[in-house]
């Protein structure tokens, strides 16, 4: 079953349950997927990788907003963003733990024979492709820096 079908079913369930936070997040996902499908040059069907990228983008936007609201002492708005993040992350693949990420990157560093932070780009390119949807780019970058320093 496609993500779009799942989202539509979950929207109906959220409406029946009168779950406003879940409904807000699901509608945002549906809207973002529709925009991705109708972009210029896009095919009629959206790929799983593209769906994951859309979801990651939504989570990233909400995390940035939540951080801003937290810094401005707007706990009410922060809570709304946090609820939506939780709902959206439910549809993303399971994220790698820090230990799993570090173990993978250690193997990759050994395989590519990288010894300094100056060669970080080599690892980032491969790791970003292979870990797409499973780890955040920022987390990958920080882990590589800590392993190479």
Can you put this structure into words, describing what you see?
The chain has 149 residues and is mostly helical. It folds into two domains: 88 residues, Uncharacterised protein YqeY/AIM41, N-terminal domain (Hypothetical Protein Yqey, Chain: A, domain1); 51 residues, Arc Repressor Mutant, subunit A. The protein is 74% helix and 0% strand. 17% of the residues are buried. The model has no long low-confidence stretch (mean pLDDT 87). This is GatB/YqeY domain-containing protein. One of its GO terms (molecular function) is carbon-nitrogen ligase activity, with glutamine as amido-N-donor. It comes from Pedobacter puniceum.
Write a brief caption for the model.
By secondary structure, this protein is mainly α.
Please state roughly what percent of the residues sit in beta strands, choosing from under 5%, 5-15%, 15-25%, 25-35%, 35-45% or over 45%: under 5%
Low-pLDDT stretches are: none
CATH topology of the largest domain: Hypothetical Protein Yqey, Chain: A, domain1
Q: Assign the CATH class of the largest domain.
A: Mainly Alpha
> How would a textbook summarize the main sheet?
none
How would you name the CATH homologous superfamily of the largest domain? Uncharacterised protein YqeY/AIM41, N-terminal domain
Structural class: mainly alpha
Task: Considering the chains and any ligands shown, give keywords for the structure.
0% strand, 7 helices, Arc Repressor Mutant, subunit A, Hypothetical Protein Yqey, Chain: A, domain1, 149 residues, mainly alpha
């Amino acid at each position: 079953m496609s993500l779009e079908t799942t989202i539509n079913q979950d929207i109906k369930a959220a409406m029946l349950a009168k779950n406003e936070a879940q409904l807000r997040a699901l509608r945002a996902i549906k809207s973002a997927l529709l925009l991705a499908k109708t972009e210029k040059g896009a095919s009629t069907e959206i790929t799983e990788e593209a769906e994951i990228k859309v979801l990651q983008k939504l989570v990233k936007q909400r995390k940035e907003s939540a951080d801003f609201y937290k810094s401005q002492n707007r706990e009410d708005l922060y809570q709304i963003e946090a609820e939506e993040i939780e709902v959206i992350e439910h549809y993303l693949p399971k994220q790698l733990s820090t230990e799993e990420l570090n173990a993978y990157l250690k193997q990759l560093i050994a395989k590519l024979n990288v010894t300094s932070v100056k060669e970080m780009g080599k690892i980032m390119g491969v790791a970003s492709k292979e870990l797409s949807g499973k780890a955040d780019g920022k987390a990958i970058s920080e882990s590589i820096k800590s392993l190479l320093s």
